[in-house]
Amino acid sequence: MNRFRFRQDEPGKVVLMVEPSASATQEELDEFYATMVSRTRGQVTLGLEIVDRLEVPPNGKRRLVDQNIPGVVTTWA
Length: 77
Prior knowledge:
This protein has about 80 residues and is an alpha/beta fold. The protein contains one helix and four strands, in the order ββαββ. The longest helix has 14 residues, at about 25-40. It has a four-stranded mixed beta sheet, covered by helices on one side.
């Protein structure tokens, strides 16, 4: 995988956005997704979205979580 990011737009649900490398196989994507589902330990329902490119902000810092629920200050809601 080149990059990945989590996006949460509603409580209890998170989307794992993955920018795969050019050589990534479907099997590798499936294994990566399964690993990430395991790591959430049932705290949230994890979806998967394959993207062509994850944008990097002008400051160069790559975000791990895009938390889009107003008023939420923790990683998962």
